[in-house]
Amino acid sequence: MHALSVRGLTKTYRNGVQALKGIDLDVEEGDFFALLGPNGAGKTTLIGIVTSLVNKTGGQVRVFGYDIDRELEAAKSCIGVVPQELNFNQFETPETIVVNQAGFYGIPRRVARQRAEKYLKQLQLWDKRDKMARGLSGGMKRRLMIARALMHEPRLLILDEPTAGVDIEIRRSMWDFLREINAQGTTIILTTHYLEEAETLCRNIAIIDGGRIAERDRMSSLLRKLHTETFVLNLRNAVSAAPRLDGYAVTLVDDHTLEVEVTREQNLNDIFSRLSALGIEVLSMRNKVNRLEEIFMRLVEGKGANGAAEAAGVNEAAAARRRGGMR
Amino acid sequence: MNETAVARETEAPPAPPIDLGRVRWIGFWTIVLREYGRIIRIWGQTLVPSAVTATLYFVIFGSLIGRRVGQMGGFDYMQYIAPGLIMMSVITNSYANVVSSFFGAKFGKHVEELLVAPLPNWIIVAGYVVGGMVRGIAVGTVVTIVSLLFTHLHVHHVFIIMGAVLLTSMVFSLGGFINAVFAKNFDQVNWIPNFVLTPLTYFGGVFYSISLLPEWAQKLSLANPILHMVNAFRYGFLGVSDVDVVRAFVIMIVAAAVLFTFAVVVMNRGTGIRD
User: Is the pTM of this model over 0.80?
Assistant: First the structure.
């Protein structure tokens, strides 16, 4: 059973922008699915159409078999959505927000109050249930939107950048929570700019770019396609030049740091033994960029100038991550 | 995908997992309760101002100026204007509630909570409209209580009073909803109440009988729907009206039906709310 099935989906906005140019996509029931793409690629438009916030131009969308053109209410009842932007009434309390949302899905008040307690506690918002929502921190507001989306216990949960702007500790606790929800049978579609997040959580992936699906595969299969990885080595003692290691491209970043490109056929033991022979001691090592990020950048950079411009946001994010060493 | 899954894909879609009728019913009442909660939460903005304004009208127009006016339509001036002032508060508050609440939901994006929910647009419209009616009638009740401090209100026909107030608040709640759907900024939320509703209300027989006007002005006044609403309501209290009460009810029912249909059509088209 497909939780989501999309065929020939197109969207042209009134200003002439063609956001989707014929998307075909299936997401299996129970999957944890990553939908990635640079800014402006069409992810949010696709999610908007599935959740009926955006009118499609053409094509077909089915949610658990329900066609959104013919059985919109049944399709919507299966979906919970956590949007990219905050979209709750900031002047209401978290409890009111989630209880009302349950009501919009036909959940009686008594049941809604029980579920509100359950999900607000799970997302560590119970002690804030009577505070006005605008006074919550950014991370709390994000968690509130997750709690709200779960109130009708949807079969398909769509998360559009749910951890944007959330600190690492809360992000990791949200990952654990989402894993648990998925393990209980909820299909999850996740869009994120934190590619480490997608790699950690998701089993299948689609990369959307320029309104088309650029790649659709199992996460593990996609990562195997990566032929070279760059490792950053931190050295105990300073070196004045990059050592020569035949068969490897070695770059001196600074006197204590080397970058080494390694192909799938080569192995790290060989590098370490050669460095040892040269008297160079390695203190620590890390991937220069996340593996998925590497593939992602290759896919979105392997296009024309327009695509490169669209990918600029992700390039900046990737560059920031490289500088900051997120992992 | 296995064979069973393929077979299931080609079969007719399974029955809805939920009772959509129940969803609609609970969804509708949730919208109404949310609107009620909003009215109570900001009572200083929703319930009090009309009571203050009505008190000023009764003191200045009714008590001070009204004494010199004498009788109107066979009743004390204060008694004559009381139904009109009640109806004026119902009109302005029904309209204001829906236009500000729905536009606020658009502006704050929390209208999306409703748009993603399995509720048809006519339920969303109906929920907001009933919310507007709740405020219109609540404020109307407050103003009625205030009016009782200044004058005696005779009830000629209770069902006409109830029918007129329900239909009028419905019509103006729908008007407020449509205004909110098309409004792109706060100026456009205020434009119709300031430049259309207020003049129509003041020329709608709240403070005078149109029999005082020259014939051409009387005919022009009959084109004003608020005149019919105010007079139907006044008839319920005093038993006098400048217009045919049956025609007034037909106008209100037709206006409500047309506006409701229009509101649902624009919602279905996604005007102002969907890309």
Answer: yes
A144-154: per-residue pLDDT in tens? Answer: 999 999 999 99
Domain region containing A244: 226-327
Most A-contacting residue of B4, B23, B28 (CB-CB within 10 A), to test interface: B23
Q: Which residues of A touch B14 (CB under 8 A)?
A: 65
> A321 pLDDT exceeds 50?
no
Q: Sorting pLDDT into bands at 50, 70 and 90, what band is A302?
A: low
Supply the CATH number for residue A194's domain.
3.40.50.300
**Helix A291-301 to helix A312-324 angle, to the nearest 10 degrees?**
150
How far is C-alpha B167 from the chain's CA centre? 8
The H or E element containing residue A112 is helix A109-122
Q: Are residues A155 and A183 in the same domain?
A: yes
Whether residues A247 and A175 fall in one domain: no
Give the closest of A54, A96, A106 to B23, CB-based. A106
> What are the Cα distances from residue A48, in Å, to A59, B234, B235?
14, 50, 51
Q: Which amino acid is at A3?
A: A
- Which residues does chain B have within 8 Å of residue A74's beta carbon, measured at their own beta carbons? 13, 16-18, 20, 118
**CATH number of the structural domain spanning residue A305:** 3.30.70.1560
Chain A residue with minimum CA distance to B23: A106
Looking at this predicted complex, what is its ipTM? 0.87
